[in-house]
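Render this sequence as a predicted structure.
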Amino acid sequence: MAARLPLLLPALAAAGLAIAGEPRVIPALYPEGPLWQGERLYFLEMHADRVMVVAPAGTSAFFVQKGCGPTAIAPYGEGFLVLCHLGTRVVAVDAVGREHRRWIRDDSGAPLMDPNDASADGSGGVYFSDPGPFTRNSRPQGWVMHLSASGVLRRVAGPLWYPNGVHVAGDRLFVSEHLSRRVLRYEIEAPGELGEAQTFADLTRLSRPARYRQAYALVGPDGLEFGPDGNLYVAIYGEGRLLCLSPDGRLLGMTDMPARYLTNVAFGAPGVAVTGAFDNRTRRSPGEVRILPALPLN
């Protein structure tokens, strides 16, 4: 495939930033779930139990809670919803990071397993994934959850084989089913009401030669988000790649990133943020948040 021009964010182009500009790299401990809110970038350090915020004035801790192991944050109410992946709970916080409510079970009484990724639904609520065991020696038992603006928490899609990244785009919800190596699409019929799952992209058919000599057994799609060019970008965990998919699911190109265990991607006016860990076997799992003005696609 011929090399493609980089995706250059319009605001950055207007600011006169060069395509070859140096990325900003922030070391982090198993970073996850980047979220742009204007000029501020939120990201999570699962193995440090905290949510960080990068602002023009500097980088600081926004939310810290022992045992949380956070992996996603989404706007909710007057503040945010934080997903505690290791702590098996979701936590509503105010605009300065103070907890005011938490959920450990859905409204049927079923306990949360390991909440993973989240996306605001555009109506005051949040969709998030609750994937279950991360092993191929399992059966599909993960769910897409919906937390309404009023605090009602329900299962709305599943069971799925490790649902991971979730992203709302207009009246559609996109979900990466990690262990099936596919991206699913759902029509949002009403807040918390989804149509039947459709396969948007089967990534087993879009594979390229592996980057690493020793293959990772649990490679698959993690976080995903539409870019300003209208294409869907999918982080491939275990291969350190971002795939660029057209609006109809065709592979347009890819970008290799330094962190092998790529977890997520987020687009905002200041740039594109990509999170990932270099190592997923140690307790601390060093990684990075990489903020770039452009994504060169090959």
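Summary. The first strand starts at residue 7 and ends at 8. The helical segments are 10-14.
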